[in-house]
Design a protein that fits this description.
The structure is a single chain. Helix 5 links the parallel strand 7 and strand 8. A 5-stranded mixed β-barrel has the order 5-8-7-6-9, surrounded by 5 helices. It starts with a helix and ends in a 7-residue tail after the last helix. It has a single domain, classed as Nucleoside phosphorylase domain (Rossmann fold). By secondary structure, the protein is an alpha/beta fold. Helix 1 crosses helix 3 and helix 4 crosses helix 7. It binds hypoxanthine (HPA). The site of hypoxanthine (HPA) has 13 residues, from strand 5, strand 8 and strand 9.
Length: about 270
């Protein structure tokens, strides 16, 4: 995927939505689909019309939704594509690069994750403080286009503290405990073994999941600040004696949708725009 392809997608969004620039980006994880469609002034654009990769799950057309929240232009990517589906990493990050070129200086990445850390329970919303890339792949491998960012980007503050402070304010406002932790990226699509979960736990991770990290790297490369929020849908393998199932993940995600939505609606107006 070239810089020009991302520019074309960003231009397509401006033309189709009538909003020349957006302020905040949002990537929806499992269970949050449809979040943006009912927001004021929502304009839904088909990912295919923008040249973006289309999720392979039938009945789930990828969309990009532009809307206004408290006077901010919010651009939401619904229909994330995952590395485990067989996509190349530059396709996986095409969507977030488009959010960045559409003007977003901050992007909220949401996901469903397995809980690894002490004290986490299904239903918890957890702010990501940092990540572990355990997949051994990086979206920036290959020729570097300086228009995206530098060859060797610094990743010491991918998820800045001042934005986590804002998440904590929102959690308090909606009556949710504020929790934070490190997110470990594993490829999937199989869930982890109990030994792998013990490994990531000993490395300091609190959550484990199959997304978010390549997107966060691509955004940091472009100088975009990331807010990461994991919904713990289950205790990771071996932490609980129950077998893991995708049905459980989607069920808990469905139950948490109202709370997650309330937190995002409170959070978006608090994000500094400079
Ligand atoms: N592991 C990896 N990804 C996940 C999990 C998990 O336990 N739950 C939701 N996504």
């Amino acid at each position: 995927m070239t810089y020009e392809a991302v520019e074309t997608a960003a231009r397509g969004i401006a033309e189709r939505t009538g909003r020349p620039s957006h302020d905040i980006g949002l990537v929806l994880g499992s269970g949050l689909s449809g979040f943006a469609n009912d927001l004021p002034g929502a304009v839904v654009v088909d990912a295919a019309q923008l040249g973006l990769p289309q999720p392979k799950v039938t009945g789930h057309a990828g969309t990009v939704v532009s809307a206004e929240v408290a006077g901010r232009n919010l651009l939401t990517s619904a229909g994330r594509v995952h590395t485990y589906e067989g996509w190349d990493l530059d396709e996986v990050v095409f969507g977030v690069r488009t959010l960045a070129l559409a003007g977003c200086k901050t992007v909220i990445l949401t996901n469903a994750a397995g809980g690894v850390g002490d004290g986490l329970v299904p239903g918890d919303l957890v702010a990501i403080t940092d990540h572990l890339n355990l997949v051994g792949r990086n979206p920036l491998v290959g020729t570097n286009d300086e228009r995206f960012g530098p060859r060797f980007p610094d990743l010491s503050t991918v998820y800045p503290q001042h934005l986590r402070d804002v998440v904590a304010e929102s959690a308090a406002e909606v009556g949710s405990d504020y929790k934070e932790g490190i997110y470990a990226w594993l490829l999937g699509p199989s869930y982890e073994t109990p030994a792998e979960v013990q490994m990531v736990r000993s490395m300091g991770a609190s959550m484990v999941g199959m997304s978010t990290v390549p997107e966060a790297i691509a955004l940091a490369h472009m100088g975009v600040a990331v807010i990461g929020i994991s919904l713990v849908t289950n205790l990771a393998a071996g932490i609980s004696s129950e077998p893991l199932s995708h049905a459980e993940v989607t069920e808990i995600a469905g139950q948490a949708k109202g709370r997650f939505t309330a937190m995002l609606m409170d959070l978006i107006p608090r994000i500094p725009l400079d």
